[in-house]
Amino acid sequence: MVLTHTTNHAYSHPFPTVTLAFFLRYCSPQLNPFASHVLSTDTISSHVDPATGRLHTTRIHLKKSRMPPAVMKLLPTSLTGGAADKASYILETSVVDIREGWMATESRNLNFVGVLSVVERQLYTAPVSTPTPTAARTDVETKVVFRSRLGERIRDRLGQHAAAAQQEGGGWFARLGAHGIQRSIERLASTKTVDQLGKSREGMHMILERLRHTGLLGVLEQRKRARAMEAM
Amino acid sequence: MSQSLAKQCNEVKERYDTCFLKWYSEKYLRGTGSAEDNECSTLFKEYSKCLQVALKERGIDKLVEDAREDNKDNDAAFLGRKKCELFQVAS
């Protein structure tokens, strides 16, 4: 069971600035109000490949659960552990090739994968026709793949302990059908994500505008001031 | 940047983030950032040392390992496909 969603978008900013905005997009809710659901961001690795000159970065974001409440309601608490309001860990990997003018990113959830796995892949490219780095256009293709393995797990369990499962939750699944449940989860998540994609794009636009007006140092200064306010 | 998931790492993370962003915009994006360019690496080591403890405590290191193992093939396929696409666009 897989559901895929693909969108294309063009930023009217040069490629290098867009990649910088990608790294800055969760820097502070004051700078990007669309990132208020991001609780933390950490870099676990970052290196330049000496052979290709590509920058490889891995980060972990902690976000307030993006699992739609409707999905959580569909699930028996024995599966979710009543985890409806828990946060999700997101693993983000990115590769930037400044010479060839592209950045490939991937974000996936680390927990709840048994219920729903969401993998978002983005490819940012500088326009080929105008190869100067100052060309104010960057294209991005976003592909999100939703996969619910819920039914598979339940079927496995049914196979192993048919009798036990019948009493515990087999009846519930028999009524709705694992197929239908997977589809519902994927559809609900997909609808929510499309909404979210719009917001993340708006957030990128806000960071890009700040960069255009004040440059990186201005953004860093603003972030510092916001942090100082928080600490008071 | 936003907070670290471990409060005790916030300060060193902030210093590393600032260093990285400056290096990225002033050097890497201008094509002068090399693999040996390690002005932020001392800060990163310090930050990483702090972060690894927190990742282990929360079992996140294990989750990351699983995700990476699970997707080695996918990643290779993805990067391969991407290069093909770029090639098609370029040609």
List keywords for this structure.
heterodimer; A: about 230 residues; alpha+beta; Alpha-D-Glucose-1,6-Bisphosphate, Chain A, domain 4; seven-stranded antiparallel beta sheet; 7 strands; globular; B: about 90 residues; mainly alpha; 2 domains; disordered C terminus; phosphatidic acid transfer activity (chain B); disulfide bond (chain B); MDM35_apoptosis (chain B)
In short:
Chain A: Residues 1-216 form the PRELI/MSF1 domain. The complex is a heterodimer of chains A (232) and B (91). Helix content of chain A is 43%, strand content 29%.
What does this structure look like?
The complex is a heterodimer of chains A (232) and B (91). Chain A is 43% helix and 29% strand. Chain A is α+β, with helices and mostly antiparallel strands and 232 residues long. Chain A has a single domain (2-231), classed as START domain (Alpha-D-Glucose-1,6-Bisphosphate, Chain A, domain 4, 2-Layer Sandwich). Chain A has a seven-stranded antiparallel sheet with strand order 1-7-6-5-4-3-2. The termini of chain A are far apart. By secondary structure, chain B is an all-alpha fold. Chain B has two domains: 1-58; 59-91, no CATH class. Chain B is globular and about 35 Å long. The model of chain B is unreliable at 83-91 (pLDDT under 50). Chain A binds chain B through residues 16, 19-20, 23-24, 26-29, 35, 38-44, 46-50, 53, 55, 60, 62, 89, 91, 93, 95-96, 98-100, 102, 104, 106, 108, 110-111, 121, 123, 125, 128, 216, 220, 223, 227, and chain B through 1-5, 9, 13-14, 16-18, 20-22, 24-25, 28-29, 31, 33-37, 44, 47-48, 51, 55, 60, 63-64, 67, 71, 75, 78-79, 82, 85-86, 89-90.
What topology emerges from the helices and strands here?
The complex is a heterodimer of chains A (232) and B (91).
Chain A: E1 3-11, H1 15-24, E2 38-48, E3 55-64, H2 69-74, H3 77-80, E4 87-97, E5 102-109, E6 117-125, E7 138-147, H4 150-160, H5 162-176, H6 178-231
Antiparallel strand pairs in A: 1-7, 2-3, 3-4, 4-5, 5-6, 6-7
Helix pairs in contact in A: 1-6, 4-5, 4-6
Chain B: H1 10-26, H2 41-57, H3 60-90
Helix pairs in contact in B: 1-2
